[in-house]
Amino acid sequence: MQGLSLLTSVFCDLPKGNKLMKKRVVVVEDDIQTAELVRIILEQAGYEVVNHYHGVDAMNYLKKESVDLVLLDIRLPGYDGFEILYWLRSESHQKTTPVIMLSADVMSNSQQWAEDLGANDYVCKPFQLDDFINRINAAIETAVIPWPTFSPSWHYAAAH
Q1: Dihedral sign from CA coordinates of 94, 96, 101, 102
Q2: DSSP state, 45?
Q3: Alpha-carbon gap, residue 51 to 58, rounded angstroms
Q4: How far apart are CA 115 and CA 132, in angstroms?
């Protein structure tokens, strides 16, 4: 644990997320060391972090909970990152939740597939800390907020 406290002290000067209300980031990464490193980095930047190491566990969580951002590895046990991304964009209640793919896979078509399926960004591992946090902050700050849907009768009653 001494290594983690030393690692944590290195990240004190990272750009901070929103301090008023902690934003929840779900990290779906099967490599436990990478997931823990990302958790430490994001918590130091002011985010609440939930780690999942298996695609099925992540989908079960995302079906029940609302989150502000999903960091999604591509190669996962259970459902892979592309399957989860497809589900998020097509069937889930989190269609507008920002998703950043986080992968060591530098195949040229992986990034294109992620973009085609609706990923907001694609970060290759290893990454630069400041750039990583800035991209997360930007994805959350520019997230599309869906317009509320009103029934015509409610809209009419409210206007008169």
Answers
A1: negative
A2: T
A3: 8
A4: 18
Residue 100 CB partners (closer than 8 Å, separation 6+)? 69, 70, 71, 72, 119, 120, 121, 122, 123, 135, 136, 139
Token pair 């929840």 in the structure block, residue = 24
Distance of CA 126 to the CA centre of its chain: 17
Write the pLDDT tens digit of every residue in 5-42.
Answer: 434 444 444 445 445 579 999 999 999 999 999 999 99
Q: In degrees, to the nearest 5, what angle opens at C-alpha 9 toward C-alphas 45 and 24?
A: 25
How many whole angstroms separate alpha carbon 36 and alpha carbon 29?
A: 9
**In the CATH scheme, what is the code of domain 14-159?**
3.40.50.2300
- Domain ranges for the chain: 14-159
Do 124 and 115 contact (CB within 8 A), yes or no? no
Residues 100, 113: contact at Cβ < 8 Å?
Answer: no
Alpha-carbon distance values, 73 to 48, 105, 148 (Å): 18, 9, 31
